Amino acid sequence: MIKNQKNNLIDTKSGFTLIEMLVVVAVIGILSSVVLTALGPARDKAKDTRIQEELAQVRSFAETLYDGDYDALPVLSVGSDPNNIALLDLKSLAVSIKSQGGELVIQKPASGSATKYLIYSNMNAKTNVTQANPQGDLVFYCRDSNGRSGTTTRQPNGNEVECQF
């Protein structure tokens, strides 16, 4: 407390002004938007990693069904409804892959007994993103009965049973 010219006590404690408070709130808002924007690609990478792990589980599931052939493994095409899958373990994996932005596809040879299979899913990550191509190219993660796995920008066609990189 200090005294003014008329010997009246004046309270010298002062708080923040409204302008100062608004500036602080604006700065915090700008910083939080920058941080949230930077987290977008990390979120996509986390979803893609989960898709890859679930495809590894589908492969393990397929190997447990193996009895000289993979005839017990169902064929799933693009656009298949995961809720229509009869095998409960496979159904839960397909639903989980779909919730991460992917789609489980299982291919086997069209004729004869199925001694090979291929599973793949689209990923959230894109490649070749440019101004001319802002959507980029799709990336697919592929696994097959030979044990090969990896990413490719070429979607396997309906009769392939081996991953092509």
Description:
The chain is an alpha+beta fold and 165 residues long. It has one domain. Helix content is 36%, strand content 18%. The protein has two helices and six strands, in the order ββααββββ. Strands 3-4-5-6 form a four-stranded antiparallel beta sheet, with helices on one face. Strand 1 and strand 2 form a beta hairpin. Helix 1 packs antiparallel against helix 2. It is elongated, with a radius of gyration of 28 Å. It starts with a strand and ends in a 13-residue tail after the last strand. The mean pLDDT is 89.
Task: Please give a quick description of this structure.
With 165 residues, the protein is an alpha+beta fold.
Any idea what the radius of gyration is?
28 Å
Average pLDDT: 89
| Low-confidence blocks of residues | none
Order of strands side by side in the largest beta sheet?
A: 3-4-5-6
Q: Which descriptor suits the 3D outline?
A: elongated
Largest sheet: 4 strands, antiparallel
Structural class: alpha+beta
Distance between the termini: 78 Å
Number of domains: 1
Share in β-strands: 15-25%
Oligomer: single chain
Fraction of residues in helices? Answer: 25-40%
Helix-strand pattern:
EEHHEEEE
Total DSSP E strands: 6
How many H/I helical runs? 2
Write the layout of secondary structure elements.
Elements: E1 2-3, E2 9-10, H1 18-65, H2 88-99, E3 105-107, E4 118-127, E5 137-144, E6 149-152
Antiparallel strand pairs: 1-2, 3-4, 4-5, 5-6
Helix pairs in contact: 1-2
